[in-house]
Amino acid sequence: MAKKGNRVQVILECTEHKTSGMPGTSRYVTTKNRKNTPDRMERKKYNPILKKVTVHKEIK
């Protein structure tokens, strides 16, 4: 039986990589508390294709 709670899994995708036109994607999977952070999450993470730290935003 699955846990019933506020913690959900979210996918973060690089915003700079999408606009650069290069092939591939940089995505990270993490969890967030839906009660504390109802809006979309935004984190700075490393993009191995661009070889630098970029802003990753939550996708649906």
Task: Describe, in plain words, how this protein is organized in 3D.
By secondary structure, the protein is mainly beta. The protein has one domain: Ribosomal protein L33 (Rubrerythrin, domain 2). 10% of the residues lie in helices and 48% in strands. The chain has one helix and four strands, in the order E-H-E-E-E. A four-stranded antiparallel β-sheet has the order 2-1-4-3. A hairpin with a 4-residue loop joins strand 3 (42-47) and strand 4 (52-59). The longest helix has 6 residues, at 15-20. It is elongated, with a radius of gyration of 13 Å. The two termini are 24 Å apart. The mean pLDDT is 90.
Write the layout of secondary structure elements.
Elements: E1 7-14, H1 15-20, E2 27-33, E3 42-47, E4 52-59
Antiparallel strand pairs: 1-2, 1-4, 3-4
Q: How would a textbook summarize the main sheet?
A: 4 strands, antiparallel
Please work out how many helical segments DSSP would assign.
Answer: 1
Q: Structural class of the secondary structure composition?
A: mainly beta
- Choose one word for the global shape: elongated
- Radius of gyration computed on alpha carbons: 13 Å
- Tell me the strand order in the biggest sheet: 2-1-4-3
CATH homologous superfamily designation:
Ribosomal protein L33
Secondary-structure arrangement, i.e. CATH architecture: Single Sheet
Fraction of residues in β-strands: over 45%
